[in-house]
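Before our next group meeting I need something from you. Please put the record directly below this note.
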Amino acid sequence: MHSEVVASRSADQRDSSRESRNGTPQLDAVSLAIIQQLQEDGRRPYAAIGKAVGLSEAAVRQRVQKLLDQGVMQIVAVTDPLTVGFRRQAMVGVHVEGDVESIAEALTGMSEVEYVVMTAGSFDILAEIVCEDDDHLLDVINKRIRALPGVRSTESFVYMKLKKQTYMWGTR
């Protein structure tokens, strides 16, 4: 991989990405390799990443900061909700009348909502909810989500057991 990354590197190492016509950053092979390294281990030292991708530690640091600033990636600690006191998780399907984006935006403002996606299918929105217990989940769904103007109905899918949760989809 190292030789492929080095061979594809542009002469200007500081320019790790350019924006496409739609404003999405276009990442070069080196930036993708850095992302892959961090997905394998978010605490991997910049010097080790640099060795793997053919850059100096300082160049990796600059590229990582640019990727963070562009919103391409985040570096976070992912916890198991059960071990930190959140005993109830659910995916909530939401049917909306009117503006789907305004409902999606309202959901993103709720601290219990971890994931919001607007969909094409039987639901307009899917939202992943993480709560302390069943009473907390009921309160979020009944008093907050269903109370939003434009929410027609919801359907809850309570997680019985989480078998897989990963962020290792790579950079394909």
Notes: Strands lie at 17-19, 25-27, 88-96, 113-118, 125-131, 151-158. The first strand starts at residue 17 and ends at 19.
